[in-house]
Amino acid sequence: MIRVRVPATTANLGPGFDALGLALRLHNTVAIEAAEEPRIEIEGEGAVSLPRDPSHLAYRAALAVAGAGTPRGTAAPRAFHLRQHNRIPLARGLGSSAAAIVGGAAAANALLGGPLDTQALIDLCAGLEGHPDNVAPAVLGGLVACVTTEAGKIRSTRLIPKRLRVVIAIPEFAVSTAEARRLLPETVPFRDAVFNVTRTALLVASLVEGRTEMLDEATRDRLHQPYRARLVPGLEAVFAAAREAGAHGVALSGSGPTVVAFGEAPGIGEAMRRAFEAAGAGCRVLGAEVDTEGTVVERDS
After folding, report:
1. I need a labelling partner for 168 at 20 to 30 A (CA). Which of 67, 155, 259, 275 fits?
2. Residues of the chain predicted below pLDDT 70
3. What angle do CA 234, 240, 244 make, to 5 degrees?
């Protein structure tokens, strides 16, 4: 059985909408082996709600890899036995769907002898998931900048941030990615586009150089967070509480509702938790480091 470890991801990081993603040391594991009939086991987050049939995301991704081709002389398995242990919360903006898809695909790819290289794996997973800014950092680790070309190709590059501690505030309610997308306008003022372009450039430079004093300004956004705030009660208060508690920068994680703050001050998580609770939402807080390894094959036995 092949087992892989896949990190959570936080996308956008404020201004880098659909362009930036960061891998975090909060992991799911997916184990897989060939089988005569589909068999799916789930532990942890989503153990009650996730399907245990071939519609399961990780299983679908494994089938997609098998369908993409196997090494010459090797027959594709009839089915898979898949075990998934989830630590990444579902529907909270931490890349749980990307982790499932990448986990299933990477495990099947390793099981089948590696018919897909890294770029092909990213392309396949992004096609299934729809968001390369989650998929690419889940595969590669670190801070990833990515684009989808007009020809539909994924282009990405991996960077390693310096001195970055992430505090994660996860409210108890979920946000639909589709609904969060629906709220976004088709056009934005030119000045807002310029605002985000300049801060995205500053954000990447600040993270790579470890210039944490720049992150407060560099994580500001006008393209998506103001429009999505209605889906996350208390969002601006949570941002303000994190900054007041000493966060260098703060952002909505993906489409939310999770908020990520960058900083080492001990009161950041508690401040965000209290702000969410004041808005009527329970909240759990986690601390995480940046995951620089991405998806890793842990065991081959």
Report:
1. 155
2. 69-74, 299-301
3. 140
Phi and psi of 73, rounded to 5°?
85, 0
- Pairing state between β 20-35 and 79-86: antiparallel
Helix axes 57-68, 118-129, angle to 10 degrees: 130
What are the phi and psi torsion angles at 268 (to 5°)?
-65, -50
Q: Among all chains, which residue has been given the structure tokens 């909060």? A: 26
Which structure tokens are listed for 207?
A: 């993270």
For the four alpha carbons of 19, 159, 289 and 59, in that order, the dihedral sign comes to positive
DSSP 142: S
Q: How far apart are CA 135 and CA 139, in angstroms?
A: 6
Residues in a beta bridge with 159: 143
Q: Which of 274, 242, 276, 240 is nearest to 261 (CA)?
A: 242
pTM of the predicted model over 0.90: yes
- 204 and 145 in contact (C-beta within 8 Å)? yes
pLDDT at res. 300: 52
For residue 122, what pLDDT is reported?
A: 96
Rounded distance, CA 28 to CA 31, Å?
Answer: 10
Q: How many angstroms separate the CA atoms of 178 and 118, rounded?
A: 28
Which neighbouring-strand residues pair with 55?
none
